[in-house]
Please model this.
Amino acid sequence: MWFVIVLVSLAVLITFILCIPIELVLRANTEGRPKFSVRLIWLFGLIKRELARAPQKSGGKLVLKAERKLEIDWPQRVKSAFEILQTKGLLKQLRIFLRRTFKSVYIKELGANLKVDLENPADTGLLFAFIAPANLALNYFLPYPIKIEPAFTGDSFLSGYVNCGVRLLPIQIAGSVLALAFSLPAFRVTKKMVINRWKRKR
Model:
């Protein structure tokens, strides 16, 4: 009997905690001295945690450097991704998940003004072939100032600022994640990934 009471009390406590909204505030600025910070506000402002970091500085720009080069079989990765996306019912389930997630997130603040250069003009152009349509869609559907532009200076950098503040209910996010994780398409994807890994190891 006591065991049941403890379990019920624990379930009620966890549910109560998940019902308390969380606020996340992101600040990133590479103009002047580069700064990056993420602030978490919980329990109606009683709990505040902040993580701040100063990235590598180079003339007011955030220098993009890779610490090590990884050999990745991109054609195989892309092929595997397309095979997963073709799983029956997965796209529909993902749309439901994204719709539920976006409904549970309230955007309090959003703004961005960025310039990106990948050093190789061809890579920069290819990147913005994907980014430009998304940027136009965001500016059309969202009432927030978002601007992302390419730069062809021959240097690899990210310059500008990003400000974002959101408020969410963990219980709604948890419900969306559980609904996706235990859906039939998710089990099909897991099965397909296990089989593919087993075949590669043979």
